[in-house]
Design goal:
By secondary structure, the chain is mostly helical. Helices cover 67% and strands 2% of the residues.
């Protein structure tokens, strides 16, 4: 199914309306497409150096967030079952607790970031603060999970870690999409290349999501081999 969807996408999708053979001149005029400007931009060179300078940090943040997010989304139930001994009835509750903490973090992150911006008037500080606090907090709380023997404490630490990770969501998104006030945001003069940085960022999120391994586990008491680990 994925391959079929990919083939359909490659066949049907175009970067701009003027490249699609189904678009008529009347339709282009109706949606306000400047065909002359787009054709001129398409002939220009891709500003790779400028793009890399402004996108490397965005890409790194997106990779870290994507890797961490999908560890929680895909690995948490099996970890709690295999490594922490929760039964199926308990899994429904204790799997949802870290995710609920993430929902709170999603909301609070944007609120706090905007509050900092209103108080300081400094957009860089407001956006960077939540990224640093969120990523740092997620690391601080995920590491002790390895050593704790108490399953309930492990759940609490995982919930705290996911809460801090999700504090970054609004600013991580703004980090990629904003257009002013932040050094890593794109200010590439050629508008036709705006799609390239977005593609780079999304590709890195995909890499982070697709190449993940779980470093948090408890050894099986009998075999002394890791239990509850998944890699993909």
């Amino acid at each position: 199914m994925s391959l079929a969807w990919t083939a359909l996408y490659v066949w049907f999708f175009r970067n701009t309306p003027i490249e699609h053979k189904w678009m008529t001149a009347k339709e282009l005029e109706e949606i306000g497409v400047d065909t002359v400007r787009m054709k001129s931009a398409a002939k220009g060179k891709t500003p790779w150096k400028e793009m890399i300078q402004k996108m490397w940090l965005v890409t790194f943040v997106d990779f870290c967030y994507g890797w961490s997010l999908w560890v929680f989304l895909t690995w948490l139930p099996s970890y709690l079952k295999d490594a922490r001994g929760f039964d199926l009835k308990q899994l429904a509750l204790f799997t949802s607790l870290p995710l609920l903490a993430g929902v709170v973090g999603d909301t609070l992150g944007g609120v706090v970031s905007d509050f900092i911006y209103k108080r300081t008037g400094n957009l860089k500080t407001a956006r960077r603060a939540m990224l640093v606090i969120g990523m740092g907090g997620a690391l601080v709380f995920i590491v002790p999970v390895v050593g704790t023997e108490n399953p309930m404490m492990a759940v609490a630490l995982l919930a705290a870690s996911f809460f801090f990770l999700e504090l970054t969501w609004h600013d991580e998104y703004r980090f990629r999409c904003c257009r002013h006030g932040f050094p890593a945001c794109l200010r590439i003069s050629d508008p036709n290349h705006g799609k390239l940085p977005s593609s780079v960022s999304r590709f890195c999120r995909t890499v982070g999501s697709g190449h993940r391994g779980c470093a948090v586990y408890r050894p099986d008491a009998k075999s002394r081999r890791p239990s509850g680990i998944e890699t993909s």
